[in-house]
Amino acid sequence: MTAKQVGIPKEKFPVGDWVNNLTRFLEKIDLSAEDLGVWYASISSYAYHWQQFKRDKDPSKVVGEDNYFRYLPHKKMIFRITSQDDPLDYLRVFAAALTTGTRLEIS
Question: How would you label 41-69 residue by residue, b for 16+ Cβ within 10 Å and e otherwise?
Fold first, then answer.
């Protein structure tokens, strides 16, 4: 898969402590204002979507039945980094994994 950023996420939600620690590390690195803007928009969007995804939903709303739909995080994910990858991109993957509690194995 080749993912491509097409715009800055609009949805926002407060991020967790682990992601805040990663943010403090990133603030010490000389990133452009645009990169920092993408970072902050991305991590707050991950937190927003995680709040939405972890809730049980019953979209069918059939009377007398509970037809819950839910997302479950992967227990473990393998993530491969290549020399062509932008460090900000894989740091955003790390932030998404920290937000959802997904264990990453990095290769």
Answer: bbbbbbbbbbeeeeeeeeeeeeeeeeeee
> Which residue ranges make up each domain of the chain?
17-106
Chain Cα centroid distance, residue 58: 24
Query: At residue 38, what are phi and psi to the nearest 5 degrees?
Result: -65, -40
Question: 0.90 cut: is pTM over it?
Answer: no
Taking 90 as the threshold, does the pLDDT of residue 81 lie above it? yes
Q: Residue 12: helix, strand or coil by DSSP? A: coil
Contact 101, 75 (CB under 8 A): no
Structure confidence at residue 104 (pLDDT): 92
SS3 of 65-83: the string is CCCCECCCCCCEEEECCCC
* Cα distance between residue 12 and residue 29, in whole Å: 24
Q: Report the distance separating Cα 59 and Cα 34, nearest Å.
A: 38
pLDDT digits (tens, 9 = 90+) for 21-62: 888 888 888 788 888 888 889 999 899 988 888 888 888 888
